[in-house]
Amino acid sequence: DPRFARSHNQALLELDRRHLIHPVTSFRGHERHGARILESGEGMWLTDIDGRRVIDAFAGLWCVNVGYGQESIVEVAAEQMRRLPYATGYFHFGSEPAIRLAHELTQLAPEGLGHVFFTLGGSDAVDSAVRYIVHYFNAIGKPEKKQFIALDWGYHGSSSTGAGLTALANFHRGFDLPRPWQHHIASPYPYRHPEGHDDAAVIASSVAALKAKVEEIGADKVAAFCCEPIQGSGGVIVPPKGWLKALRTACDELGILMLVDEVITGFGRTGPMFACEAEGVTPDFMTLAKGLTSGYAPMGAVMMANHVYDAIADAAPEALPIGHGFTYSGHPVSAAIALEVLRLYQEGGLLSNGERVGIRFAQHLERLRAHPLVGDTRGRGLLGAIELVSNKGTKAGFSADLDVGGRLSALTWEKGVIVRCFGNAVIGFAPALCCNDSEMDMIFERVEGALDALL
Ligand code: PLP
């Protein structure tokens, strides 16, 4: 009965307004506007409680890389829940899915990252990496090395530790815990860089900024440099090719560790399994989440270089535990799901489909450069963005009271496509790797329609 459905949906919206605190959402704004409540998904498509179908060009929150409705994942999860829904990794216990997943990740990651610690998502993966880095420098007798350097526009989660490395204002307004151990340098943001047309200059300025910051703090005090290979939540900022490699070399010269946060860029999002791979870089720590389970269950991971692992292992007395862990580290259901997701990327052909359709994605982005509102487009693989400006010549943005992000978010939803609209008038795209050509064309047709409506 449609009348019953309508009143049921109204009740749901009302309960949501009253009780549920949504992530990164204004409390009063949510009470006023309510949520768009989603009910089901299939491939690239989502259906809300009113039966409205939209194409999801953002893979949920850049995580559902395999697309919705993958039955084989459901089967694997149900089977694992039936057999053993939970096993701790504490006290020398373990479970087969977690062990097999750790092994598989070490086979896929850059050589030398031979050890894996599982978390529940990306924020606690970053936290765990930070704690292990601190532990490592204590282990090797350099306890004064406790300062961390990250990038402006970086996002590394919103737990107390990772949020500190995050450099986005929204995550610090009203959450001003002192962060004396965290420092930031300029982002390699070609569109907003004075020499952005010159890749070598952008790379050189990042290397120089890192060296200057380390000198300012004192080389004997800096533990690590932390970055995303492509900055996601900052507005899909794509550094020039060779940037990550140059920063790896600089970290080595400076005697600091490199933590590469591949929470978004991992698992085929930028083409290869990991973005590090394309640059031939092996970080000392790599953080993963999102595409690891493709959002079918929560899970993140920290990959640790062998030399770090060995140093910690050799220094810690065998009779004492290394005090870091979570109840759900290596959760067997999440691990079983991740193993099936990894199979879909490889044997299921999703990684290669992603690379193939990524070419069409790049062509659409390129074409949009001609649009009167578009100042810049950028991307790699199936991760991309368009940056809107009010004046292409001066690259001026829009005043905050115009709420371009909010209007675009409403307009794209009206047109039947989900993208991410960032405050700095950037539209982010991260379609699932299962996207086909006509779905890709449809995404851009609908986004263009929204842009025209904004004019
Ligand atoms: N690191 C990066 C690069 C991210 O993009 C995110 C989330 O978007 C995180 C960490 C935090 O992950 P989570 O939201 O799973 O805690």
UniProtKB/TrEMBL annotation:
The keyword Transferase applies. PROSITE patterns: AA_TRANSFER_CLASS_3. Pfam families: Aminotran_3. GO terms for molecular function: transaminase activity. Its cofactor is pyridoxal 5'-phosphate. CDD domains: OAT_like. Gene3D superfamilies: Aspartate Aminotransferase, domain 1 (3.90.1150.10), Type I PLP-dependent aspartate aminotransferase-like (Major domain) (3.40.640.10). The keyword Hydrolase does not apply. InterPro entries: Aminotrans_3, Aminotrans_3_PPA_site, PyrdxlP-dep_Trfase, PyrdxlP-dep_Trfase_major, PyrdxlP-dep_Trfase_small. Keywords: Aminotransferase, Pyridoxal phosphate, Transferase. Belongs to the class-III pyridoxal-phosphate-dependent aminotransferase family. This is Aminotransferase class III-fold pyridoxal phosphate-dependent enzyme. It comes from Novosphingobium clariflavum.
